[in-house]
Amino acid sequence: MLVGSTSTFGMDVQFPGQSIEYSENPTIPFGPTLTGWRSIGGAKLSLDTLHPLSDALTTVMRVDVPINATGEIYNASFYVLADPPNDGANLTGFDLSLRSNLTEDVWHTTKIPVQNLSAFEYLQFGATLENTVNAPDSNNSFALTMNGSEIAGNTFYFDLISLFPETYKNRANGLRRDLGQNIKDLNPRFLRFPGGNNLEGYSIQSRWIRGRVGNWEYYNTNGFGLLEFLEWTKDMELEPVLAIYAGYSLYIKSTSEGASYPEDHLDEILQDTLDELEYCMGNTSTHYGALRAQHGHSEPFQIRYVEIGNEDWFSSTYDYRFPYLYEGLKKAYPNVTLISTAFNENPDYNISIPSGGFWDTHHYQQPTFFLEQFDYFDNWEERTGNEGVDVFIGEYSVFSIDTPSGEVNYSDPIDEHIAYPQLLSAIAESIYLIGAERNPNLVKLSSYAPSFQNFNWVKRHFCISLISYHKKIN
Predict the structure, then answer these.
(1) Which stretch of DSSP H or E encloses residue 149?
(2) Burial 370-404, CB ≥16 within 10 A → b, else e
(3) Cis preceding linkage at 165, omega within 30
(4) pLDDT truncated to tens, each residue of the chain (474 aa)?
(5) What pTM, to 2 d.p., does this model score?
(6) What are phi and psi of 397, to 5 degrees?
């Protein structure tokens, strides 16, 4: 997808807070680039906004073929639009190949026959590449080529070019098979999705909804979206815990809180959430239930837990957002358990969580913190006045070594930050969890976070992840 790129933040002494200090697209931070693409056979690649694939995918890759051009088990897919007046009429097919970036070796080639293309609407093509060669390294590319002599002087537009290895349970757009099996082998009981900060976005307009700027300095295609998360829970028999956007977004400068929906616009957020829940649980006679069926899953999912936001103690507005959304959701779905993301963390207010609800608490701390919290959950309901409220430890991890101040420096200084597992971390976290487990009638859910980290992509090791991996499957 040609929808965005990496940008990084830094401090400028002349201005308050953080600002963009580097962007792959020097004009538009997080804007589209062709960084991951290169031409073959002299074709010219460029970005095009005149022929969008959809309202959500507004930038595509334009391929101009020279007038003197001549010829040249994964699941591949792409969309293509031809350019008038020729409409690519002489094109007989697309060649899909796996090839080395270091040598002239081509490991596998598959041809997709083409009878006609359209200059009016995008057409989707796909094929299965059954490769039987073990490449000596991971420095390889997926190539999509055409016979230059057939299309010399023509122009084409491409988008949503994808190449998937075999996936867990053979799900379309699903988890990489080995990563899915690794998660399954841990015997998990539930999945909280689509995440924490990733839900909020750096602005209201960039919240989790479709391809957009993520919250960790790289662009999110959201190709793994709501339906894929739901199918993940089904394939592993996990309880889905759906986190919904609650009207608060983070702020790129990090010197103050981000933007919040005003009270007189919260009905928009509530309706978005009701639409999302209808997509998840509605039968096919409903608008969004029918849309889910159109996407390939006619059977409704069951959502029993909905989390209202993420770490909303950072905002000064959760005290009016939470009760509004809680009441609206309870009215529509009385049997769904609702989870608050704040209780007493913000010094300016406490959240009154109704009996039967949950409180989600997050901790990225030093080892001593977790040791000292061993007895925190003992008599918690009585001590805090939260009768009938359960606890969800939604994210926890030892983040740094113990320091004299006892304060965590979240800028990740290399002499304090723990980026890889340590025995002390495991001991501290285990003692904390033992304290939770001896209160089973209170602490009903707990999950380590983050879940996945790709070492080939993520430049910043925020903290130890449950599963860290490389692009080379073996």
Answers:
(1) helix 148-151
(2) bbebbebbeebbeeeebeebbbbbbbbbbbbbbee
(3) no
(4) 555 677 777 776 666 667 777 777 777 777 788 888 888 888 899 988 889 888 878 888 899 888 887 654 778 899 999 988 777 778 999 999 999 999 999 999 999 999 889 999 999 999 999 888 888 888 889 999 999 889 888 999 999 899 988 899 999 889 999 999 999 999 999 999 998 888 998 889 888 876 677 777 777 777 889 999 999 999 999 999 999 999 999 876 665 688 999 999 999 999 999 999 999 999 999 999 999 999 999 999 999 999 999 999 999 999 999 999 999 999 999 999 999 999 999 999 999 999 999 999 999 999 999 999 999 999 999 999 999 999 999 999 999 999 999 999 988 888 998 888 789 999 999 999 999 999 999 999 999 988 888 877 655 566 678 888 887 655
(5) 0.89
(6) -175, 140
CA–CA separation, 32 and 211 (whole Å): 12
On the 0-12 / 13-18 / 19+ scale of CB atoms within 10 A, 14 is exposed
Q: How many CB atoms are located within 10 Å of the residue 256 CB?
A: 8
Which residue type sits at 82? A
The runs of H, that is alpha helices, within 357-464 are: 367-372, 380-384, 423-437
Euclidean distance between CA atoms 378 and 366, whole angstroms:
21
Angle at 216 between CA 338 and CA 467, to 5 degrees: 75
CB 158 within 8 A of CB 134: no
Q: Write phi, then psi, for 314 (nearest 5 degrees).
A: -70, -20
